[in-house]
Write a structure and sequence with these properties.
It holds the Pfam family Na_H_Exchanger. InterPro entries: Cation/H_exchanger_TM, CHX17_2nd, CHX17_C, CPA2_transporter, Na+/solute_symporter_sf. The strands form 3 sheets. Strands 7-8-6-5-9-10-15-14-11-12-13 form an 11-stranded mixed beta sheet, with helices on both faces. The protein has a two-stranded antiparallel sheet with strand order 1-4. Strand 12, helix 22 and strand 13 form a beta-alpha-beta unit. The protein has 25 helices and 15 strands. The protein has 3 domains: 373 residues, Na+/H+ antiporter like fold, CATH 1.20.1530; 166 residues, HUPs (Rossmann fold, 3-Layer(aba) Sandwich); 147 residues, Rossmann fold, CATH 3.40.50. By secondary structure, the chain is α/β, with parallel strands linked by helices.
């Protein structure tokens, strides 16, 4: 008997019926909270237990949203639009209309408490994650264009809303209630939520474009205005300055006490280590407590959690650890319950609904209008914006077009510092002198973790490439950047200039920063290390970026296979072989070798395999003549032509020419598949290296470092 009593539903009161001062009739009633668990599946309806009901609601929302996403995929709609539409289908607008069998079974009134509590908890921690990912510094470094766009983006919708409201109010049978609240509605609808923008840009791979950077910085300024509006609303709603003082007090505590503590946690975390579980749990609980405090003061629980997240440093080790621990369960499992994947405006709408400022019908209208605007704008942006348009603004550059007396500009991508010594020796072999200087743009590749938006950091202020600016504090602590700067100083700053950058972005869009930098600085060559490292491990960042750079780069690209090119380039210490088959890529490789031939420590051996591509034989002959003329007085250069009659002879000649080479330079592509390479293409494992580069990497025992060159055409 006692057990039956313990499992029986407990009646609890939920509000009462009243006519609010804003004219909205509030109806509440008493419901029976179902028992938490059910005895067994066959002993009754499993949905009578709150736990089973909640799990069923989560699963149903998940499958419906995925079905909508599949159906709308041809329309190029983002996930946040499809999830919101799925929520509308299950909500009170369509299937969940009151009085239907579906509502009484799947969304009974007795399950409202558990469902809304779980949804609000998910909403609070979703906004907390958004705050953790944001970088407030973006607001302080905004330029004039960002300020203008942000101001116009705020004022025009606000003026349009107020003007329309004043015009239509004269035709209404009754005056509008609460005019102050309508002003708040206008201000809220004029603000663009950062998670909306970042999610769309990331999903359509526009986050690293010029449009993406502008949109993120502009939206962050809008969010700052939203915080001011939130504080004003707390004062107006509470009709007391004590509410505002209480909120300001907890915000001061977060800035003055919480922020120094989390910075101490980061300092005590070893380099490359993980933040302790106890610290992560403490931060998560603190965010919940602050949200509860904001709710008591008349605000929204998500406002407090958002501010805690905003003050928490983004990125590794702390920000990325929090995002990794919470993001999946919050966004995939909890957030669909309130149809809030990325729809930040709905957080405000739900807050108004809870505070009885709007009724369910108006809530549905606001939801539909927000979804419609996003659904229209998302495909338009993805169609009209070309991610590589900025990278193709200038004419193509190539080493072959760069005169011997011109500065050679090279972008070097580095994700793993182990390859830095070999890259430095490769750059030294290009013969930098005061008469033939090189400018090295070192791009450090960092995966976007624990941040909402990608960033591109310039570590050295050097606008005209004439004044060696000082490094910032971050670059001074990165070992391989310090190694490049040391190399520059070893040349007395006369033949080498090093400009370091950091690209913090998803692997899928890192190439956009690299290509944009190459275009803006008129670079002739981009060097990307091969993703297969000497130990056999795979570098996922380089594996993702390499094919995209090959496709979108506005200049020549070199893929560097490091096999231990670590010896300093001294007199006669570096042996370089060039295998020439013909075509633009081989001509570009020969042009780079011609520049290397001027270095007193480099020995060049060029082997031309004939017959070459007959359709392009004239250009090949002209390139060979130019090469011979440029190196005719250099005893360290050997040139020979070998006539071969098949793939087997080609491979044998390559093996016979092995004279302990340190580096082999080859072109990546052939003009068309010839009888020299058609047999090799079938066995090619790494298409980014081309058939010859793949063979040198796979079949020659790892004896040589290889530079595979592709000329931009």
């Amino acid at each position: 008997m006692a057990n039956a009593t313990a499992n029986a539903p407990i009646p609890i009161p939920i509000g009462n019926s009243s006519l609010g001062g804003d004219g909205i009739f509030n109806i509440s009633s008493c419901h029976l909270v179902p028992k938490v668990t059910n005895a067994a599946f066959w002993n009754g309806n499993p949905l009578e237990s709150s736990f089973s009901l909640l799990m069923f609601q989560i699963c149903l929302m998940f499958f419906v949203s995925r079905a909508v996403r599949f159906l709308l995929k041809p329309l190029r709609q983002s996930r946040m639009v499809t999830d919101t539409i799925g929520g509308i289908i299950l909500g009170p607008t369509v299937l969940g209309r009151s009085g239907t069998a579906f509502t009484s079974t799947v969304f009974p009134a007795s399950g409202t408490v558990v469902l809304r509590t779980t949804a609000l908890l998910g909403m609070m921690y979703f906004i907390f994650i958004v705050g953790v990912k944001m970088d407030p510094k973006t607001i302080t470094v905004s330029n004039r264009r960002t300020l203008i766009i942000s101001s116009v983006n705020l004022t025009l919708p606000f003026i349009a809303f107020i003007t329309t409201q004043l015009f239509l109010s004269r035709y209404l049978p009754e005056p509008l209630p609460n005019p102050k609240f309508l002003i708040l509605v206008a201000a809220t609808l004029s603000i663009t939520g950062l998670p909306n923008v970042v999610y769309i840009l990331t999903e359509f791979k526009l986050a690293n474009t010029e449009l993406g950077h502008l949109a993120v910085s502009t939206t962050m300024m809008n969010d700052a205005v939203g915080w001011v509006i939130m504080l004003i609303f707390i004062v107006l709603r509470g009709r007391s300055w004590m509410s505002l003082a209480s909120v300001v007090a907890i915000m001061a505590f977060i800035v003055c006490v919480y922020r120094p503590w989390v910075e101490k946690v980061i300092r005590e975390t070893p380099q490359g280590g993980r933040v302790s579980e106890s610290h992560l749990i403490a931060i998560i609980l603190f965010a919940g407590l602050v949200g509860f405090y904001f709710d008591m003061m008349g605000g929204d629980i998500s406002d407090g959690a958002f501010f805690v997240g905003l003050v928490t440093p983004d990125g590794p080790p702390l920000g990325s650890a929090l995002v990794e621990k919470m993001e999946a369960i919050v966004e995939v499992v909890m957030m669909p319950l309130v149809f809030l994947w990325g729809i930040v405006e709905v957080v405000v709408f739900l807050f108004w609904l809870n505070k009885k400022l709007i009724d369910p019908d108006l809530f549905a209208v606001l939801m539909l209008s927000t979804t419609a605007m996003t659904a229209i704008s998302t495909p338009l942006v993805s169609i009209l914006q070309q991610p590589t348009s900025r990278a193709k603004r200038f004419s193509a550059c190539a080493v072959q077009k760069c005169l011997s007396t011109m500065e050679l500009r090279i972008v070097v991508c580095v994700h793993n510092e182990d390859v830095a010594p070999s890259l430095l020796n490769l750059l030294e072999s290009t013969n930098p002198t005061p008469e033939n200087p090189i400018c090295i743009y070192v791009v450090r590749l960092v995966q976007l973790l624990g941040r909402s938006a990608p960033i591109f950091i310039t570590h050295r202020d050097n606008n005209n490439n004439t004044d060696n600016g000082a490094l910032d504090a971050t670059a001074s602590t990165i070992p391989f950047i310090k190694a490049f700067i040391k190399y520059e100083r070893s040349k007395a700053g006369q033949s080498v200039l090093v400009l370091p950058f950091t690209s913090v972005a998803p692997f899928e869009t890192m190439h956009q920063d690299v290509c944009a930098l190459a275009s803006e600085r008129h670079v002739s060559l981009v060097i990307v290390p091969f993703h297969r490292q000497r130990g056999g491990a795979t570098d996922q960042a380089l594996k993702s970026i390499t094919p995209r750079v090959l496709s979108d780069a506005p200049c020549s690209v070199g893929i560097f296979v490091d096999r231990g090119l670590v010896r300093p380039v001294g007199p006669g210490s570096c042996r370089v072989a060039v295998f020439f088959f013909g075509g633009p890529d081989d001509r570009e490789a020969l042009a780079l070798a011609s520049r290397m031939a001027g270095h007193p420590g480099v020995m060049i051996n060029v082997t031309r395999f004939v017959p070459s591509d007959e359709a392009d034989a004239y250009n090949d002959e002209e390139t060979i003549k130019a090469f011979k003329w440029g190196v005719k007085e250099k005893e360290r250069v050997v040139y020979r032509e070998v006539e071969v009659r098949g793939v087997q002879e080609t491979v044998e000649v390559m093996r016979m020419t092995d004279d302990g080479w340190d580096l082999v330079v080859v072109g990546r592509r052939r003009e068309k598949e010839s009888w020299l390479t058609e047999g090799l293409a079938e066995w090619s494992e790494w298409p980014e290296l081309g058939v010859i580069g793949d063979m040198l990497y796979s079949d020659f025992g790892g004896a040589w470092s290889v530079l595979v060159v592709q000329q931009h055409v």
